[in-house]
Amino acid sequence: METETVTCAYPRAGVALLTIDRPQRLNAIDPDTNDAMARWLAELERDAQVRCIVVTGAGDKAFCVGADIPTLLPRLRADVEAGRHDPQICGMTHRNSTAKPMLAAVNGLALGGGLELALACDLRIASSNARFGLPEIRLGLLAAAGGCTRLPRMIPAALAAEMILTGEPIGAERALQAGLVSRVVAPDRLLDEALGLAETVAARAPGAVRACTALLRRARFQELADALGEERNAFAHLLLSEDGREGVRAFGEKREPAWRDA
């Protein structure tokens, strides 16, 4: 089931490595990548040999910079207009596609939906060149795959508010200090460190791992269900607004947007 945009490998006992493989687009999520990630997670959930899943991005520049704006946003807008909008991104953000623990190995830029994928994982470690941000406000939109709801619950509220309202990113060391990641390592050590940590998790008692993972996820899914729904409704409204359309147009035309909504 390997695709051109998502690959899966099994580098350690009990560990699967999912890689978003679009380095030429900084691993941005296009519709094919969005669908392929969901399919792979469903496949890995059925694989009894896999006990922990590592998610990363190809290359050394980006984990994932979020939506591929020219391709994914038109699809999301069409879904909203047709009344069939599903907030789930990459099979991760709003529902559990797998009960197995997931670890994000952030190897560069984690922006927008990329940061939201990391937030939906159970563990996060980063390379020293990683940067984390939610730039959606620059497009007249908001981070609606869990960014506006999860980030303020994972790091100090003041820092989360600054990131959400300015769209400015933070570096790996500040992310570590804020508790967004548990480790920061040299770029050439990141994958080895991530796979070693995943292998340790995979070696623990499967029943205990499943139980602990389910409890850890309560705050990210069950207890946030209403907030996630409100976040996505707000995104749908902004996506159809004139400012939302203008922000996306301006991005494509490489110019500053001319906002209209006062």
Short account of what is shown:
The protein is α/β, with parallel strands linked by helices. It has helices at 31-46, 69-82, 113-120, 147-154, 157-166, 172-178, 190-202, 206-217, 225-240, 242-253, and strands spanning 6-12, 15-20, 52-57, 62-64, 102-106, 109-111, 123-127, 131-133, 170-171, 183-185.
Please explain how this structure is put together:
- It is a single chain.
- The protein is α/β, with parallel strands linked by helices and 262 residues long.
- It is built from 10 helices and 10 strands.
- Helix 4 runs antiparallel to helix 5 (157-166).
- The strands form 2 sheets. The chain has a 6-stranded mixed beta sheet, sandwiched between helices. The chain has a 4-stranded mixed beta sheet with strand order 4-6-8-9.
- It is globular.
- It has helices spanning 31-46, 69-82, 113-120, 147-154, 157-166, 172-178, 190-202, 206-217, 225-240, 242-253, and strands at 6-12, 15-20, 52-57, 62-64, 102-106, 109-111, 123-127, 131-133, 170-171, 183-185.
- The chain has a single domain, classed as Alpha-Beta Complex (2-enoyl-CoA Hydratase, Chain A, domain 1), CATH 3.90.226.
Supply database-style keywords:
single chain, 262 residues, alpha/beta, 2-enoyl-CoA Hydratase, Chain A, domain 1, six-stranded mixed beta sheet, four-stranded mixed beta sheet, 10 strands, 16% strand
CATH fold label: 2-enoyl-CoA Hydratase, Chain A, domain 1
Helix content: 40-55%
Uncertain runs are none
First-to-last CA distance:
48 Å
What amount of the residues lies in strands?
Answer: 15-25%
**DSSP E strands, number:** 10
Q: Tell me the count of domains.
A: 1
Write the CATH homologous superfamily: 2-enoyl-CoA Hydratase, Chain A, domain 1
Task: Give me the number of helical elements.
Answer: 10
Q: What is Rg?
A: 18 Å
- Averaged pLDDT, please? 93
Top-tier CATH class: Alpha Beta
Strand order, largest beta sheet: 1-2-3-5-7-10
